[in-house]
């Protein structure tokens, strides 16, 4: 149990919630009334506050802008049928955020700031958590370096913030993915495992080239040989070949997804054979050609379970199995959704009840 923290709370005088069309929520475009903000200087975190959502003043010399000390997280809150608000596995996001922070020479965020920051913020903005089960309140914690200094060295000052946004599905339809074999997202020893802002910026150019060909997203391959699949940048990848659920193991190039971990846990418990191992592109293509590739999908907080209906590799595009026939992703995906939304028992205490 996290103790209630003494945050300064400044309430917004007039909510903007009546302007929001909850029946049509694009991902990440509208923001709830309040935001959490804490500053770090002289080796410590100062008293945090929750205040009306709005712009923040920054120095043009702010080091995050110039050298990229900037990291973030993503998690979701759901409303149960009884009206309770549940946040899914926030402790895992806190741990991952501090792993990212360490890699980028940024300070650790105290657990109580992270968890009670989310709890108090979501409590204040509870009306912003959508009731529709396909929607949620997406919570975005992030930290950036704030020293007004152009020398290349770790900043001495930082800001940690949490904002939130009511969202619908990130991907509205099954995806057409391409296996990327020219560009690289991450190399061993780099920052691929961290949720560093720069990982996303540097992936945009190859993704944009693919989007011009009508492709939705890329599946990245290993930096050395471009032979083994990695992840899709917005989600980890899973395939079912010959009845086995396969996913790439967690190395320094792979983001350790919360949805990835939750899905694997439930699939193992349901008795499906699970292997975390390298998966070559060739293995996937041969399995598709011999009818053994029965499922391919992405797993992520924003993406949830994102089915892949077409796969492009080199100059060929493969039409994949009918989505309704995909037993593991449909079954485990539903089970996971039911736990998050309170429709199924949360036997592992994954949810943090907000109020
Ligand atoms: C998430 O799933 O929370 C992500 O951060 C992926 C993407 C929206 C950047």
Task: Explain what you see.
This protein is of the alpha+beta class and 355 residues long. The chain folds into 2 domains: 162 residues, D-amino Acid Aminotransferase, Chain A, domain 1 (2-Layer Sandwich), CATH 3.30.470; 166 residues, D-amino Acid Aminotransferase, subunit A, domain 2 (D-amino Acid Aminotransferase, Chain A, domain 2). Helices cover 23% and strands 26% of the residues. The strands form 2 sheets. Strands 1, 2, 3, 4, 5, 6, 7, 8, 9 and 18 form a 10-stranded mixed sheet that branches. Strands 10, 11, 12, 13, 14, 15, 16 and 17 form an 8-stranded mixed sheet that branches. The chain is globular. Bound molecules: 2-OXO-4-methylpentanoic acid (COI).
Characteristics of this structure?
26% strand; 355 residues; 8-stranded mixed beta sheet; alpha+beta; D-amino Acid Aminotransferase, Chain A, domain 2; 10-stranded mixed beta sheet; D-amino Acid Aminotransferase, Chain A, domain 1; binds 2-OXO-4-methylpentanoic acid; globular
Summarize the structure.
The chain is an alpha+beta fold.
Q: Which range does the strand content fall in?
A: 25-35%
The biggest sheet amounts to: 10 strands, mixed
Low-confidence sequence ranges: none
Kindly provide the name of the CATH class of the largest domain: Alpha Beta
Backbone shape: globular
One letter per element, helices H and strands E, the order comes to: EEEEHEEEHHEEEHHEEEHEHEEEHE
Q: Give average pLDDT, whole number.
A: 97
Radius of gyration: 21 Å
- Could you name the CATH topology of the largest domain? D-amino Acid Aminotransferase, Chain A, domain 2
What number of domains? 2
Helix segment tally:
8
CATH architecture designation of the largest domain: Alpha-Beta Barrel
The percent range for helix content is: 10-25%
Structural class: alpha+beta
The tally of beta strands, per DSSP, is: 18
Distance between the termini: 13 Å
Q: CATH H-level name of the largest domain... which superfamily?
A: D-amino Acid Aminotransferase, subunit A, domain 2
Molecules bound to protein: 2-OXO-4-methylpentanoic acid
């Amino acid at each position: 149990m996290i103790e209630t923290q003494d945050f300064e709370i400044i309430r917004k005088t007039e909510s903007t919630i009546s302007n929001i069309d909850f029946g049509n929520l694009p991902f990440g475009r509208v923001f709830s009334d309040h935001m959490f903000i804490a500053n770090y200087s002289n080796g410590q975190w100062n008293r945090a506050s929750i205040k009306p959502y709005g712009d923040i003043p920054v120095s043009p010399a702010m080091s995050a802008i110039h050298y990229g000390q900037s990291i973030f997280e993503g998690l979701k809150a759901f409303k149960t049928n009884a009206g309770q608000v549940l946040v899914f596995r926030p402790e895992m996001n806190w741990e991952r955020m501090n792993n990212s922070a360490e890699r980028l020479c940024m300070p650790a965020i105290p657990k109580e700031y992270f968890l009670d920051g989310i709890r108090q913020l979501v409590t204040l903005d509870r009306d912003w958590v959508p009731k529709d089960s396909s929607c949620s309140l997406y919570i975005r914690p992030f930290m950036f370096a704030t020293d007004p200094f152009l020398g290349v060295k770790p900043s001495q000052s930082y800001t940690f913030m949490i904002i939130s946004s009511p969202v619908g599905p990130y991907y509205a339809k099954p995806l057409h993915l391409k296996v990327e074999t020219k560009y690289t997202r991450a190399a061993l020893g780099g920052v691929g495992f961290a949720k560093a802002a720069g990982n996303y910026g540097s992936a945009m150019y190859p993704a944009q080239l693919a989007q011009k060909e009508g492709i939705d997203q890329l599946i990245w391959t290993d930096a050395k040989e471009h032979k083994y699949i990695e992840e899709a940048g917005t989600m980890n990848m899973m395939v079912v070949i010959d009845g086995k659920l396969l996913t790439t193991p967690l190395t320094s190039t792979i983001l350790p997804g919360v949805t990835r971990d939750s899905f694997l846990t439930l699939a193992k418990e349901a008795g499906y054979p699970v292997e975390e191992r390298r998966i070559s592109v060739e293995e996937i293509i041969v399995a598709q050609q011999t009818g053994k590739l029965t499922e391919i999908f992405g797993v992520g907080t924003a993406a949830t379970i994102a089915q892949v209906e077409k796969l492009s590799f080199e100059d060929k595009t493969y039409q994949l199995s009918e989505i309704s026939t995909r037993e593991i992703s449909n079954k485990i995906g539903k089970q996971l959704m039911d736990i998050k939304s309170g429709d199924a028992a949360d036997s592992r205490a994954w949810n943090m009840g907000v109020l």
